[in-house]
Structure formats: C-alpha cells, structure tokens
C-alpha cells in the first residue's frame, strides 16, 4: 500500500513535471518520485543510502534552510557533486518538520511552480505531523527503555528489556554485545555538536540495518554512540568484529568533511547472556574506547577481551593514574633524554618475556648492541632485570606511562 506521503510526492511531481524528494527535519529520506532527469551525486547518494551526509547537510544549512519561512535557492557545489536546487521548508504550527527538494540545474523553475509547491506544502506538513507524532512516541519509548537498560537497578533493566521486546524492536534471545562509537579530535578543536551527533546516529543506523531489523538497538549519548547487537549463544567474536569494523567505517564515512572531525574509535565489550545484563558489556566497551583514545596504537577497533593488563589500568581514575604510581627507576629512564630509545627497548624486551633473540629481531639490533642497552637500562633505572619484582614493576609502569601519555614512542 502506497503511503500518504508517497502519494503526495508523486502527485506534486506530476503537477510540476519535475522530480521531487521529501526529507524529514534531520534530512533523512522519506519519499521520492521517479527521476528521468540528470541526477547529481548528492541526490543519488540520498536515494541509495536514504540519508544525506553530514558534510552535505552542513553545506545546505549554510543557506538558512532550517530557519527560513520561504523557499530557498541553493547554488551548486562541484566539489560535493551538488547541482543547484530549490528547498521548500515544511512547517506545521511554526515547527519545522521536513523539506521538499527540487533539482534546478539551469535555474528554470518558475515562481508559479514554487508557489504551487508552497501551497501543496501544507498537505505535506500535516501528513508529516501525524506520522511524526506516532513515530516520536514510539522512538521515545524505545530510547527511554534503552537508557533504563544502563541503570544499576536490576528490576529496572529487566522491565526495560521486556518493553523493548514488546515494542517489537528487539527480538534476539541469545547473547548480546555492546559497542561504543566515539569520534576523537586530537588537536582539541571542538566539532559542531549537532552535526557530530547526526554523524554518530547515521553510523549507528547504518550498522544496525546491516545487523538485522530486530537484532540490534542504538542510542546516541552526549559524546558517543551505543550499538547493542545480538550474537547468538556461540561463536560471538567473528560477528562482533564484523559489526565493529562496519561501525568504524560508517562513522569515518559520516564524519568526512566535517569541521572539527578527526579519527574515530569503537570499543567492544564482551558478550552477556541476556539483554538486561548488557550494561556490563557497555561499561567494558566504554573503557575500551577510552583506551583506544589514549593509545592510538591500539587501533580504531578496541576489543575489551584483547586489551590484557590495560583492562585493569583503564579502571583507575585520572587522579589515581597521576598519583606517583610509576616505578622510580622508570621515571629516571623516561627522563634520561635518550629519545625514549631505552624505554622502547625495555618495553619490547619485557613484552617478549625477556627473550633476547626475539627482542633483537624486533628492534633490528645485533645481540651485542641489545645487551649494551639492557645494561644501560639497569644503570639508569637502578634495577635488576633478572629480578621478577623489578621486571613486573617496570613493565606495569610502562603501560601506565603509555595510558597517561608520559610515554608515547
């Protein structure tokens, strides 16, 4: 059955003899008519992905479409493969509900056609208002239940899981895993918060769609996004890695071209047997993402189960991490002014369990040179690398120094 909005789009396209696209206020595709005229890359991408990229949204909003009460003519942008177009904002009771879009490559859309589009816009706005009201109520119930899934109270989490299943948005009965997606700006420049949240949501929705319509949930929080996926009772790691990689790529793609955008990280928690226990996986995923932010070498995808000793260190507060926890000898080693060469040699040696041959190969050193460095390390650090306690303290101290940024080879 053709929806009311699709019928309105097709009727308007026939009346104006030109293609029409209808988007909601977040510029997500709702309906479009048949296109028998040239399309630009932005229109093609919108139809294929059912959404516009944040970079394009930022460009279009420069022309005031979100606040305008009248149609807006927007010039082309070859860099974005954007042809000139006309936007008709749709409002009901002064509330912005969506946009009608018309390609206008040659500026040939006459004023009388624009007036007809504006008159028909009242029908679109009313239909959008009705659908938006129902959709928002359902989405708010889903978001409230998702937030309650992350509470400490067990009964609240059980009730939230029941509501999500009753709503029909999550049908998975097996194990579940949480993934946390977080953009990172290493130079400290603050991104546009609205566009960043939009990019996070687009990435979550795209990955959720790949996971299956009833096998995933998502929630956008103030600085990160949460994706919950069902992974079944067994064989959890491969599908989780797949979902994590998909989320990394989707977020990277959504952030392209946005001012203030940088690298992205995704933290992955461990599987939990029931939805009401996913908060445990979420906390792990957040800590994994925190580690990936602090330790770029971990990579954009950080699995909690693969982080070794960092799992314990990540749970220390910032104050605790800076509370003089480093071995005194390591402090001296880091301050030795030898371009961190000695610290890197020590870390490699300890990571490889004191295997001289493997360490020399990893550092591309002759064994004699390695022995010389190890003696130098013992002198500077006033430590005995044959002593298990010294080795443990130095090894743990190196990982702490990495986490706090004191040591970044």
> What gross morphology would you assign?
elongated
Give average pLDDT, whole number.
85
What is the helix content?
40-55%
CATH class of the largest domain: Alpha Beta
Question: What's the helix-strand series?
Answer: HEEHHEEEHHEHEEHEHEHHHHHHH
The profile of the biggest β sheet is: 5 strands, antiparallel
Low-confidence runs: none
Query: What's the structural domain tally?
Result: 3
Structural class: alpha+beta
Total of DSSP H or I helical runs spanning 4+ residues? 15
CATH architecture of the largest domain: 2-Layer Sandwich
Summarize the helices and strands and which ones pair or pack.
Layout: H1 4-16, E1 21-24, E2 29-32, H2 41-49, H3 54-61, E3 72-74, E4 85-92, E5 95-103, H4 111-149, H5 154-166, E6 175-184, H6 193-211, E7 216-220, E8 225-232, H7 237-255, E9 263-268, H8 278-294, E10 301-303, H9 310-313, H10 318-321, H11 328-334, H12 341-351, H13 356-363, H14 367-381, H15 388-404
Parallel strand pairs: 9-10
Antiparallel strand pairs: 1-2, 1-5, 3-4, 4-5, 6-8, 6-9, 7-8
Helix pairs in contact: 1-4, 3-6, 4-5, 6-7, 12-14, 12-15
């Amino acid at each position: 059955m053709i929806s009311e909005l699709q019928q309105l789009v097709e009727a308007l396209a026939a009346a104006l003899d030109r293609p029409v696209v209808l988007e909601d206020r977040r510029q997500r595709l709702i309906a479009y008519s048949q296109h028998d005229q040239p399309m630009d890359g932005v229109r093609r991408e919108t139809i294929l992905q059912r959404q516009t990229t944040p970079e394009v949204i930022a460009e279009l909003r420069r022309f005031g479409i979100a606040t305008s009460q009248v149609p807006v003519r927007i010039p082309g942008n070859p860099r974005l493969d954007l042809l000139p177009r006309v936007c008709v904002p749709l409002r009901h009771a002064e509330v912005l509900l969506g946009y009608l879009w018309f390609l206008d490559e040659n500026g040939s859309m006459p004023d009388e056609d624009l007036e007809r589009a504006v008159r028909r816009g009242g029908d679109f706005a009313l239909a959008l208002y009705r659908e938006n009201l129902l959709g928002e109520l359902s989405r708010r119930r889903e978001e409230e239940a998702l937030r309650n899934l992350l509470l400490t109270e067990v009964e609240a989490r059980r009730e939230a899981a029941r509501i999500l299943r009753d709503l029909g948005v999550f049908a998975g009965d097996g194990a579940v895993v949480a993934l946390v997606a977080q953009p990172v700006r290493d130079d400290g420049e603050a991104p546009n918060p609205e566009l960043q949240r939009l990019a996070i949501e687009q990435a979550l929705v795209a990955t959720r769609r790949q996971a299956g319509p009833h096998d995933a949930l998502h929630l956008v929080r103030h600085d990160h996004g949460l994706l919950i996926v069902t992974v079944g009772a067994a064989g959890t790691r491969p599908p989780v890695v797949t979902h994590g990689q998909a989320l990394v790529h989707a977020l990277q793609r959504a952030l392209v071209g946005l001012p203030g955008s940088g690298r992205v990280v995704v933290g992955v928690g461990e599987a939990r047997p029931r939805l009401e226990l996913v908060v445990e996986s979420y906390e792990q995923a957040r800590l994994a993402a925190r580690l990936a932010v602090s330790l770029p070498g971990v990579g954009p995808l950080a699995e909690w189960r693969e982080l070794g000793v960092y799992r314990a260190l990540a749970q220390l507060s910032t104050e605790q991490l800076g509370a003089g926890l480093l071995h005194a000898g390591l402090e001296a080693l880091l301050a030795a002014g030898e371009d961190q060469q000695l610290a890197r040699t020590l870390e490699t040696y300890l990571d490889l369990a004191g295997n001289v041959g493997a360490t020399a190969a990893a550092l591309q050193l002759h064994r004699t040179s390695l022995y010389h460095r190890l003696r130098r390390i013992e002198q500077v650090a006033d430590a005995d690398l044959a002593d298990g306690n010294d080795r443990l303290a130095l090894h743990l101290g190196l990982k702490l120094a990495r986490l706090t940024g004191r040591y970044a080879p």
